[in-house]
Amino acid sequence: MDTKKQPAQLEYRLRWADGSGVRETIKADGLERAVMEAKSRINTTTYDVESTIWISVHIDALGAEGDWDHVETVTVGLDPDEPECTEAEHDWQSPIEIVGGLKENPGVWGNGGGVIITEVCMHCGCERVTDTWAQNSETGKQGLKSVSYEVSKYADEIAAMCAEESAVEGPDGEVEWSVYSEETDTDHAIEIGSDESCRHWTRINGVINGPYALREFAVESIGGES
């Protein structure tokens, strides 16, 4: 027969600090167990958040006189889910043209004892802001970390940057464009450099593409030495 004495079960009350008025009474063999039980009862799946929130539960212990005495507060941080991207995964960067800041550390701004970091997905334009000195408005505690997202906030800016990077300047000097295909509204031109090198350009619906290298015989076919 097992004569080992079981720990005494103490009574605790859990009070949610979100203003919902939810209260639960539990039994545990000490405060450490009560804290574990409180954490396990915080159901984070019931929250739909766009930025980090902190869920706090106050723990009261039943005193000898039948009064409840506050003994601990348990807080669990809940970050928002990362939004879906137009590509397989986000490409988080801090282009100074969008996020501002210093050239050597773009998108980073001081905030109390920490910083606020702004990043942008180079695929979909989603914004991610990380605050390393966030504050829990319910408890006033500072020095926490929070994250927030804003979907497609910089989608137009990212599209413009990509278009600018892929844009072709075209021939260095003036060239004569000739019709290559009226059906597809395509022109083409040959640019001959000072070193007698040549480059082939096309212009489709007004958009210049190229240059494309030409073989030596192509120069002769456009009026070079025979």
> How much beta, percentage-wise?
35-45%
Helix content bin: 10-25%
Largest sheet: 5 strands, antiparallel
Number of domains: 3
Q: Give start-end ranges of low-pLDDT stretches.
A: 215-226
Q: Could you report the average pLDDT, rounded to the nearest whole number?
A: 81
Helix and strand run: EEHEEEHEEEEEEHEEEEH
Structure classification: mainly beta
Radius of gyration: 33 Å
Oligomer: single chain
Q: What is the overall silhouette?
A: rod-shaped
Query: How many beta-strand segments?
Result: 15
N-to-C span: 113 Å
Number of helices: 4
Task: Give an overview in words.
It is a single chain. By secondary structure, the chain is mainly beta. The protein folds into three domains: 10-78, no CATH class; 92-165, no CATH class; 169-221, no CATH class. 14% of the residues lie in helices and 41% in strands. The chain is built from four helices and 15 strands. The protein is rod-shaped. Residues 215-226 have low confidence and may be disordered.
Provide a concise account of the structure shown.
The chain is mainly beta and 226 residues long. It is built from 4 helices and 15 strands.
What is this structure's SSE topology?
Blueprint: E1 10-16, E2 23-28, H1 31-40, E3 53-62, E4 68-78, E5 92-93, H2 96-99, E6 101-102, E7 105-106, E8 108-111, E9 114-121, E10 127-134, E11 144-150, H3 155-166, E12 178-181, E13 186-192, E14 198-204, E15 207-213, H4 216-221
Antiparallel strand pairs: 1-2, 1-3, 3-4, 5-9, 6-7, 8-9, 9-10, 10-11, 12-13, 13-14, 14-15
